[in-house]
Amino acid sequence: MTASNHDFPIALVSGKIISSTLDATGPGPHRRLARKVFSQHNLSDIASDEWYPLSSYLQALDEVGISMKADSLFHIGRKLKFRAPAGFEIMSFESLMHSLPIAFNTHHRGLAPDAITYVIHGPHQATVTASTPYPCDFNRGLLQSAFTLLGARSIVETVEGTPCKARGGETCTYQITLPQI
């Protein structure tokens, strides 16, 4: 399921997320393409402290993903700079897992507060289920990016046999494994 299949008329996304997404497209032709597409969805002159229609952002993100190579949304998600929520210190795998839904809720309004849930299976392994409106590959890249805060590269894989947006599901489930740190 692509992002444009979702309709979130009252949901909002922070300008900080939109600006970070544009920055994550890199310099040159990809950024020019992304800016053009975002502009076509009334997402130009973005202010980081303002709020914008999530539906417009999802449609623009979907079009950018279609216009670029197949794994572009994963790479954009991976290049986003995950930041701990205000007042939240990331000191361990567990604290990072706990920060994921808080960070999501900080940058979105009008969505269910439980769009990201997780189960920790050990000191370096967890399962995350995302019912966010974002495409599977974008979420997977963002999750991988988040774990760089711990100084290690995580392994983020979709869990076989579970629903996945890429296959028409409403959620995606990811297995996260972090090498010993």
Note the main attributes of this structure.
single chain; 181 residues; alpha+beta; H-NOX domain; four-stranded antiparallel beta sheet; three-stranded antiparallel beta sheet; 7 strands; globular; disordered N terminus
Strand-helix topology:
Layout: E1 12-14, H1 15-24, H2 29-40, E2 51-53, H3 54-67, H4 72-79, H5 93-106, E3 108-109, E4 116-122, E5 125-130, H6 136-146, E6 155-158, E7 172-177
> What is the string of SSEs from the N terminus onward?
EHHEHHHEEEHEE
Strand content: 15-25%
Unreliable stretches (pLDDT < 50, length at least 5) are: 1-5
Spatially, the strands of the biggest sheet line up as 4-5-7-6
How much is the radius of gyration in Å?
Answer: 16 Å
Distance between the terminal alpha carbons, to the nearest Å? 36 Å
The major β-sheet equals: 4 strands, antiparallel
Look at the structure and give the mean pLDDT: 88
CATH class identity of the largest domain: Alpha Beta
The dominant shape is globular
CATH superfamily of the largest domain: H-NOX domain
